[in-house]
Amino acid sequence: MATNDNNLNILIRIADVDPIALTIARNEEENYREAEKLVNTLWRKWIAKFQGEDSSQKVMAMVAFQFARLYSKSYNQNVAVNNFLTAFEKQLDDVVVKI
Asked: What is the per-residue pLDDT for 97?
């Protein structure tokens, strides 16, 4: 159900948790659906792998940690790239100014 031209009400279903209602920007729906799919895919894989060993809640905690770890790694890589590009831009400016 749409709330206006720019927003959309959606339900996401994660693991065995009750659906979660969200109001999102319409142009972000694909990102939300992809995130929902990725989390559920990993959760289903790990819940089967650890069947009988760990609770659904513990498996979801492991999934959350995995995504947080990947986010942290990507964030640090982005910072490194940004620092490199900033230094490169400065060097390029220095070369252009000398010409």
From this structure: 84
For 29-87, give the secondary structure using H, E and C.
HHHHHHHHHHHHHHHHHHHHHCCCCCCHHHHHHHHHHHHHHHHHHHHHHHHHHHHHHHH
In 3D space, the residue among 12, 14, 80 whose CA is nearest the CA of residue 41 turns out to be 14
Would you list the domain boundaries of the chain? 7-98
| Residue 67 C-alpha from the chain's centroid | 7
C-alpha distance from residue 29 to each of 9, 24, 25, 37 (Å): 10, 7, 7, 12
Q: Specify the pTM.
A: 0.76
